[in-house]
Design goal:
Length: about 350
Amino acid sequence: MAEIKMTFSNLEKRHLSNCKDYKDEKVMCDKLISQFENIESFEKLNRTSRNLHRLVEGHMEISHDTMLLMELSIDQLDKTQSRLDKTELDLKEIKADLKEIKDKLDKTELDLKETKDKLDKTELDLKETKADLKEIKDKLDKTELDLKETKADLKEIKDKLDKTELDLKETKADLKETKADLKETKNRLDKTELYLTNTANILNETKERLGNELSKKKTKLKKTQDELKDTKAMTKLLSVDRDWIGIFNRKLKKKLGENVFSEIKEAMDDARIYQTDITQCSCVKKLEEILEKVGMSFKDFKLLFETKQLSNEKFHKSPGQTIKDAKEQLLNDSFQKNRKISSLH
């Protein structure tokens, strides 16, 4: 403001002689200065700017100083506009803050309502707890009475325990005597146990020795039994088959001729005595041709021949047997199931 006053003072001195309407201009300038000093709003500042423009248009000879005043006014307007813009931004921020505060207040109101519900529930719980406490108090009173009764019972039990303690002392003395008796009895039992152990060892040794002897005798008896079974089976075989082997040999002798059959018998004896191979002999070849017709091999004939020889050593004669009886016996005897009875045709 001091600069503005100084500007108008210089303006007054410079144009004092040339300006006829100086008084009117001075009045206008004073009015403008007064308005500029008392600016309180943006609208007053705008009016001041318009008045300055009119002053410039009416008095061109003082346009330079007036322009300075206008520039100052414009700067002031810009500053005011900036403050207004900032104020508007602040108002927006304040509005946003107010909205946020409102949301928080709404949320707080909900929280308060929820808290109130919880408090109501807590109040109900407290009422229930109070009832439970009253019930517990009644139980405690009853328990106190029970404790008094129990105390009386404990006193009675203590008296009994004192009496029992005396009895235990007497029993302890008796136990001491019994312990001595038990020690003596234990010594006797140890001696008896040692005797029984020795006796058991002797019995075990005797049992083992008798078991070994019994096992040996059992093995020997089984061997003898097997030998008897083999002898019985062989005797049965020889007694049954020797006649049929003789019949088979006679028919075979008739087929081969007496000379060829004698050669076969002689070859069989040589093979048995000297362990020679007679399968390539001509008489054996003829024999194999006949045996093949009845489903037999030379090995089968050799077995029959050896059986006949063994039979001659065991028996002088055998009872007669029909073909029907022999077939029935062969079917019933498991030993004969793998043997064939063939006849020459």
